[in-house]
């Protein structure tokens, strides 16, 4: 019964998102693709470094009709972990569109470096400039208390998205999809890919894993993880969920419960170095990269090295198209990444905008049971979101993971 529900959830969400994303701006997609090609198609080290250098130079960027010199007073700030990350850009696209629709001004502000210190410094400046709200994906669990306290005292609400902020200071956390689902699906996909099994048409990867491992007598399968930073809350929660999945007796003696973990700090150059280390050591069968930067860097490295190591994780179809099958006729195993997953990043950003506006008008306080209504957004109808207990704080669930594989890549490449 549970499996059936999961299959339906995956199927429904893919269909929903396909229609929901039909209205994506083509201009944005073209820019994203061009940037991606420049980054991921960079063959030699020099070219890769040049692309990464460009990203670093891009200190902060303001969008939504404002420039960095404009007044920040009254603006709704969206802060990602660092600049140069399409995932962050797409979340902001949704955030900005929803805010603009409500006559509000949104500003994208992210540090060049993926560190707590760099975010704290920016936050401090923005609070002084009297911004209206802060929506943040954090680079770590600790180190924000002082600056978050300053925001609280100034009456500036903090909402976290993607990577959690301290429950004591945030109104709520906008959770992209169930953490355990993401961790479980990633492990299941990595095992099936290692065994050369296509994404099952019925969507039930766990049943396929049970069947395949039941008759598996080969060497113990070893999985690697190429993550963001060692401190990033969201990636660490997914890694913990992967370890929970691996503790299921179905994997016992067949798949190692120990993940070989490396960290590329969501930086193209560092992620490439770590992917190359996996190739040189040749100890893992499949790399799981739960970051869009890491998976694209690993795709490029594995493809260039013609490595036998396979890849899956959380990726943007537009950034992964050179490393994945394109049509149902393709042999998925001719490519380094036969299938992977993500969720509707643009819609996710819009949910956080709706949450923030409801907080500011006093109708949502982030406590368990408190709710807000998000107006119709693109092809999504109006929807109510309710806060639930999550760790020591609360969260709001924005979506579910979708699988990208040879059967639907063509459709997704232009959308996300
Ligand atoms: C990266 C970021 C982000 C993560 C996605 C999947 O862009 O690390 O935190 O959620 O990938």
UniProtKB/TrEMBL annotation:
Record-given protein name: Monosaccharide ABC transporter substrate-binding protein (CUT2 family)
Q: Where is this region: Disordered?
A: 26-71
Q: Where in the cell is it found?
A: Cell envelope
Specify the species.
Murimonas intestini
Give GO cellular component annotations, separated by semicolons. outer membrane-bounded periplasmic space
Swiss-Prot/TrEMBL keywords: Signal
> GO terms for molecular function, please?
carbohydrate binding
- Domain Periplasmic binding protein spans what residues? 77-362
Compositionally biased region (Basic and acidic residues): 34-46
Q: Quick one: signal sequence residues?
A: 1-22
Gene3D superfamilies reported in the protein's UniProt record: 3.40.50.2300
